[in-house]
Amino acid sequence: MTVYNPQSLNADEFINDAEICDTLRYADENKDNLELIDAIIAKAKLRKGIDHREASVLLACENPEKLREIYVLAEQIKKDFYGDRIVMFAPLYLSNYCVNGCVYCPYHYKNKHICRKKLTQEEVRAEVIALQDMGHKRLAIEAGEDPVHNPIEYILECIDTIYSIKHKNGAIRRVNVNIAATTVENYRKLRDAGIGTYILFQETYNKESYEALHPTGPKHNYRYHTEAMDRAMEGGIDDVGLGVLFGLELYRYELAGILMHAEHLEAVHGVGPHTISVPRVKPADDIDPDDFDGGIDDETFCKIIAIIRIAVPYTGMIISTRENKSVREKALRLGISQISGGSKTSVGGYVEPEEENSAQFDVSDQRTLDEVVCWLMELGYIPSFCTACYREGRTGDRFMALCKSGQIQNCCHPNALMTLEEYLVDYASPKTRAVGEKIIEKELQNIPKEKVRKIAEEHIEDIKNNNKRDFRF
Ligand code: SF4
Ligand code: SF4
Questions:
Q1: Which of 297, 394, 406, 461 is most buried, judging by how many CB atoms fall within 10 Å of its CB?
Q2: Which of 366, 384, 415 is the last residue of a domain?
Q3: What's the 3-state SS for 147-190?
């Protein structure tokens, strides 16, 4: 039997099944232990996080008063660390060729009637221009695993193409990459290509379920997949993004697993995950979410988000257009710091309407980016197109140190206002622009340091009146 060891590089030891089962037992035994729950909430209030055991107790707790306290705390931590800013991004699907047999994804190789497509560089260019014309600055590129159709050279070529396109005032300034687990050498190549975050969803941390859900293909190898973030960091990638696909397995198992993964990265590399994503299984071409046992309702989903927020306050949290408007609204309040908008989940979907069935999942939030931006502002948020940190070399432990000292706020807030101004001038509808200009005017007054405020005001004037772009702190 393997023994739990967060510092081990063996996935069976740092995501240890016996430790998770014991954690869940402990959580069940203590779900009504108000003294312990109060102590955990008090610890969380210190804003330094809580561990997987403590978080699991809170997840098991059903006491309405304690749950209210947890939600209030999550909202407060969200505000303290992220203010009212929400970072915007869009996915870009490069290719849906895939050799894996994942049973929850329509790109699995056995699906013979889905339309397979891989973008040429010309098509990448057209997609990126369409994304730039919407106003996006930050992309997450996605591709199935297929060494013949989508080798690392293809991914690198696409990244180069994406960064090279300067269309009107547009530019993609940060490319995050969501591709299959790979070798240290390939991670090094991605690092050298200037990627932002390397994102890889674990799907499920339960090894047995993992192997059943990935019956064939290289992804079947649980250890190779689960240890990918260690190889990515060894390859020099500072920022990694975790995620599980909620709905596949017991959500309580997954919460403990993902927090153990975060603790492992912190223990071994001195820096936790840059982001955590919380996708849920959604309908798609030959996929019915009801085929899986672990489905969770909206209430449980929001509880998970709140608990992750207080467990890892420094980690950004991402929600996609898999979720509808009302779930996204609740989730934003409880901890989400990044959302996608105007997304297409098919290959080539930004240029061609999605009539061909090449989408990875059905989009629940079908609004345009402009509608999402306006909606966010009407809810009191500041949509941000900021990509400053990685371009200023603030990644990995340097980024985390700034986060932990709270100094990052001095950058995030003015950067959000300046990039929002770019969006308003270049892409917004008249209504969105009117709402946004008022917010910027008001928010400039909330920049505490006079010197920073003055510089931000000057830059905003330059964006509006002198057609200048790309200022950042
Ligand atoms: S989840 Fe990824 S690896 Fe699995 S079939 Fe879909 S694209 Fe391929
Ligand atoms: S300043 Fe850094 S942390 Fe803040 S929004 Fe920009 S990129 Fe993100």
A1: 394
A2: 366
A3: CCCCCHHHHHHHHHHHHHCCCCCCCCCEEEEECCCCCHHHHHHH
- The answer to whether position 288 is within a domain reads yes
CA dist 381 and 394 (Å) reads 24
Phi/psi region, residue 34 (left: phi>0; alpha: psi -120 to 50; beta: rest), is alpha
- Tens of pLDDT, residues 219-266: 999 999 999 999 999 999 999 999 999 999 999 999 999 999 999 999
Model confidence pTM above 0.90: yes
d(CA 473, CA 400): 17
Which of 147, 144, 151, 154 has its CA nearest to residue 111?
A: 144
Q: Would you call 9 helix, strand, or coil by DSSP?
A: coil
- 313 and 333 together in one domain: yes
Q: What is the pLDDT of residues 267-316, one digit of tens each?
A: 999 999 999 999 999 888 888 888 887 889 999 999 999 999 999 999 99
Q: How many C-beta neighbours within 10 Å does residue 332 have?
A: 21
> Which of 387, 389, 447 to probe ligand 2 with, by most ligand atoms within 8 A of CB?
389
Tell me, in angstroms, the distance from the centre of ligand 2 to residue 204's CA.
29
On whether residue 207 sits in a domain, the answer given is yes
What letter does residue 194 receive in the DSSP assignment?
T
Report the nearest-CA residue for atom 2 of ligand 1.
Answer: 144
User: Residue 238's domain spans which residues?
Assistant: 83-366
Residue 433 falls inside a structural domain: yes
- Total structural domains within the chain: 3
CB 71 within 8 A of CB 299: no
Cα 459 to ligand 2 centroid, rounded to whole Å: 17
My answer on whether 100 and 129 are in the same domain is yes
Q: Looking at the domain assignment, is residue 260 inside a domain?
A: yes
My answer on whether 133 and 280 are in the same domain is yes
Nearest CA to ligand 2 atom 2: 389
In this structure, are 161 and 55 located in the same domain? no
